[in-house]
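chain below, 624 aa
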Amino acid sequence: MRTITFGIPVVALFICSAMFFGQVQAQSPGLGNPLGPMVSGTDFSGSYRWLNHQDATLFTAAGDIADWGGIPLNDAARLYALSWPASRLTVKQHQCMGYVAPYTWMSPGNHRIWEERDPFTQRLVAIHYWGQISQVDRTIYMDGRPHPPAYAPHTFAGFSTGTYEGNILTVTTTHIKRGWIRANGVPQSDAATVTEHLIRHGDTVTILAVVNDPVYLSEPLSKTSLLARQPVAPDAWLYACDDSEQILGRKNDYIPSHLYGQNRDIREYADKNKVPLLGSFGGRETLYPEFLGAVKDTAAGEAAAKAKMFPSGPQQASRVPDPTPNDGNIHVLHVSGNVYMLTGDGANIAVQVGPQGALVVDTGSGNLSDKVIAEIGKLTSKPVQFIVNTSFHAEHVGGNKKLQTAGADPSLTGSFFSNQFADAGQGATVIGHQNVQTRMQQQKPPLDAPPSDTYIEDRRRKYHNGEPVEIFPLPNAITDGDSIVHFRRSDVIVTGDVFTTTQYPFVDVKNGGTLQGEIQALNFILDRTVYQHDEDGGTMIIPGHGRVTNEWEVAEYRDMLVIIRDRVQAMIKNGATLDQVKAARLTADYDVRFGQTTGPWTTDMFLEAVYTSLKNSPQTATTK
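prediction:
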């Protein structure tokens, strides 16, 4: 068996040897200057190319399926990888997927590193990295600044800070999108933290990277990369990528995947290289020499490998904490243009500000409404004019009454019919789908301040604070009254609970929610997003719960739901009961990220909603 990664104990030996052989430079003490600490160390500036070294043939979507020996994959990661086919790359949002650390060092194009220094003091502010493939633009801050809050956006480059340890540059990176450990199906989650140690020996830079991933790894993964300095910088530095049609006529709710145990390519690498199948499946045990004894019994090894193709053991609770602050305060994040996200009172709140006054999307649970109003007051001196509710669920409408009362009635310049509203002249106008109004009034006792300005099928549109604002009803997704809001000039979409980053979608079957409607709603959002480059930037997304994102995370969420739909649908076609579907753990590769075993919305509840909506619907998985 070929072991191609190092266990974590090698880190200490690696660093010690580098400090002995490297060019150790003095480190100046920090002076407490507001410009940042005084730091010095090895200068890594220059143009580089990657030297084929560790994982030499496994870059840029290369490598055999199940060539995963030596990677401490957990069960969720292995199931994810076994379900992944290379044809996933034909899906529009996957064609220009970016590179994450440390995978980006393996990109075959050119690399450039340079320093940014304060023009007056020459203090080192940051070290910049540019990778040609997928145009990775990465900043390593050296001035002591903290990492952003958990609800801030993630990028493929992530957010990096650095320090010098002797001649070693140590870089810590968080806020990384879901990417690849190996692009033959092995994922790195959006909860990973990457620590890299860069050591320069003349014109060669060695990078030792350690990945801590609570979602997909059972212990830290360490690996090395080598860069060689190029004396003459090449001309090629851009590698722009635009997605395009790959397979004509294919519906956008088809995502290629393998059902559990049905990946026909899993033996390709093992048979070709005479490696035990159990070894090729990876796992922490494959890092250590004791594993050789486990594969001596061929029959037992084959049985153990086949067992790993199916989920087993107890259902896992989510291990990724909710990024929403729970400290009794409202936290404000500028998203784009004149749109902000307020978080801390249940569901996320979006606020657009400008000369006409504030337009608010959702009002939270209502527990911190006074603080919400105070924070809006810091963003604009003008009152709240409009409130849009994306659903009738309590954490989205609980603050309606207080925010409405604190606002101002724009009816004289608003809708032609606004004077007929029951709450005309009583404060801000509340807008929402007719079913939001109906269901809020049906609650016992009725919920305060339901929408009075309602719509049913067509988009509701306004021109507010200098930009077009479109409100789209998306029926039968989470409920029968869902809406999203698109601020077109700011290019921000507020999704409500149609999309969250914290849990499986709350498909409220009793109130008109369906899985297929939820998938269609996510595709509706994706039809309106544009990335800046390589699935980064561009249209920003404020989810109902969780962190700010862009197109990539919405597509990943859509992909997950399509894959789960197809698995459940296949079992339904074979006559499976709900209990059998739950027992099959068809969400096992996603549970550690989105699942819950306790609380108001568990994995079992989600599976029951999926089963019920598919069982009672004539719609089936779309193939071509």
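The domain at 331-615 is CATH 3.60.15.10 (Metallo-beta-lactamase; Chain A). The two ends are 40 Å apart (CA to CA).
thats it, cya
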